[in-house]
């Protein structure tokens, strides 16, 4: 395994572990999701270079646009929940009360 692959796998693994274990604030969960998407985007853009193909793919651009939509939606939910609940702690949210 090359050091490049190891760095992508470790970045994705660390961000998914951060999402699983540090769920106190909504902003930290959003940051972990963004780091997962960033590591996947960099891995997908480096994949044609590693396989030495000359064709460009549309998948990294589509994933980057979905990541931007996910970030915008997450920040909108963060602002809305902070206005209604007063903080971004995840233990304050109860989906059954909606």
TrEMBL record:
<keyword id="KW-0520">NAD</keyword>
<dbReference type="GO" id="GO:0030964">
    <property type="term" value="C:NADH dehydrogenase complex"/>
</dbReference>
<keyword id="KW-0249">Electron transport</keyword>
<dbReference type="GO" id="GO:1902495">
    <property type="term" value="C:transmembrane transporter complex"/>
</dbReference>
<dbReference type="GO" id="GO:0005743">
    <property type="term" value="C:mitochondrial inner membrane"/>
</dbReference>
<keyword id="KW-1133">Transmembrane helix</keyword>
<keyword id="KW-0830">Ubiquinone</keyword>
<dbReference type="GO" id="GO:0008137">
    <property type="term" value="F:NADH dehydrogenase (ubiquinone) activity"/>
</dbReference>
<comment type="function">
    <text>Core subunit of the mitochondrial membrane respiratory chain NADH dehydrogenase (Complex I) which catalyzes electron transfer from NADH through the respiratory chain, using ubiquinone as an electron acceptor. Part of the enzyme membrane arm which is embedded in the lipid bilayer and involved in proton translocation.</text>
</comment>
<protein>
    <recommendedName>
        <fullName>NADH-ubiquinone oxidoreductase chain 4L</fullName>
        <ecNumber>7.1.1.2</ecNumber>
    </recommendedName>
</protein>
<dbReference type="InterPro" id="IPR039428">
    <property type="entry name" value="NUOK/Mnh_C1-like"/>
</dbReference>
<keyword id="KW-0472">Membrane</keyword>
<keyword id="KW-0999">Mitochondrion inner membrane</keyword>
<dbReference type="InterPro" id="IPR001133">
    <property type="entry name" value="NADH_UbQ_OxRdtase_chain4L/K"/>
</dbReference>
<keyword id="KW-0812">Transmembrane</keyword>
<dbReference type="GO" id="GO:0016651">
    <property type="term" value="F:oxidoreductase activity, acting on NAD(P)H"/>
</dbReference>
<comment type="similarity">
    <text>Belongs to the complex I subunit 4L family.</text>
</comment>
<feature type="transmembrane region" description="Helical">
    <location>
        <begin position="29"/>
        <end position="49"/>
    </location>
</feature>
<feature type="transmembrane region" description="Helical">
    <location>
        <begin position="61"/>
        <end position="80"/>
    </location>
</feature>
<keyword id="KW-0679">Respiratory chain</keyword>
<keyword id="KW-0496">Mitochondrion</keyword>
<dbReference type="GO" id="GO:0042773">
    <property type="term" value="P:ATP synthesis coupled electron transport"/>
</dbReference>
<feature type="transmembrane region" description="Helical">
    <location>
        <begin position="6"/>
        <end position="22"/>
    </location>
</feature>
<dbReference type="Pfam" id="PF00420">
    <property type="entry name" value="Oxidored_q2"/>
</dbReference>
<keyword id="KW-1278">Translocase</keyword>
<keyword id="KW-0813">Transport</keyword>
<dbReference type="GO" id="GO:0098803">
    <property type="term" value="C:respiratory chain complex"/>
</dbReference>
């Amino acid at each position: 395994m090359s050091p490049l692959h190891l760095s992508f796998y470790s970045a994705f693994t660390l961000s998914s572990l951060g999402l699983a274990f540090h769920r106190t604030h909504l902003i930290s969960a959003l940051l972990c999701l963004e780091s997962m998407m960033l590591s996947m985007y960099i891995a997908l853009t480096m994949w044609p270079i590693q396989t030495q193909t000359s064709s460009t793919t549309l998948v990294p651009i589509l994933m980057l646009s979905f990541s931007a939509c996910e970030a915008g939606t997450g920040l909108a939910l963060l602002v809305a929940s902070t206005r209604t609940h007063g903080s971004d702690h995840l233990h304050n949210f109860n989906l059954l009360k909606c």
